[in-house]
Amino acid sequence: MILNEAHDGVLSGHFGRDKTLALIQEKFYLPKMEREVMRHITRSRTCLIAKTRAQNSGLYTPLSVPEAPWLEVSMDFVVGLPKTLRNKDFVMVVVDRFSKMAHFIPCNKTHDASYISDLYLK
């Protein structure tokens, strides 16, 4: 029950071996505590699913080098900003990969995709 509460409890969040062991050692002493904590963590279903050892990542593949300005662009949105005097509360950021030039276009959160695409094409 102590191990369950220290590792699987609502407030604990499935800590690793060292953190779980430190939490238990603050208030309790158990014989062979390190072994029991390790055994409990390795059998935890949530930890087995979330903290797998296998990695699905391979080698990084570099992006191609752009050949001319404005052929390859990236676009992102910055949201959660305070409203400006013109009632704009979010920014569309468009960056040209060739020249590294960025355009910051103020928008409203209420704008839909067709309006944003018109802004981009302008």
Describe this structure in words.
The mean pLDDT is 83. The protein is built from 5 helices and 3 strands. The termini are far apart. The chain has 2 domains: 2-50, no CATH class; 73-121, no CATH class. It has 122 residues and is an alpha+beta fold. It has helices at 2-8, 17-27, 33-43, 45-50, 113-121; strands at residues 73-78, 90-96, 102-107.
Brief description of this entry?
This protein is an alpha+beta fold. It has five helices and three strands; from the N terminus they run ααααβββα. Strands 1-2-3 form a three-stranded antiparallel β-sheet, covered by helices on one side.
Based on the model shown, name its key terms.
122 residues, alpha+beta, 2 domains, three-stranded antiparallel β-sheet, 5 helices, elongated
**Unreliably modeled segments:** none
Q: Helix count?
A: 5
Question: What share of the residues lie within helices?
Answer: 25-40%
The helix/strand series, from N terminus to C terminus, equals HHHHEEEH
Q: Give a count of the beta strands, DSSP E runs of length 2 or more.
A: 3
Distance between the termini: 63 Å
Q: What spatial form do the alpha-carbon principal axes imply? A: elongated
Mean pLDDT: 83
What percent strand?
15-25%
Give the spatial strand order of the biggest sheet: 1-2-3
Number of domains: 2
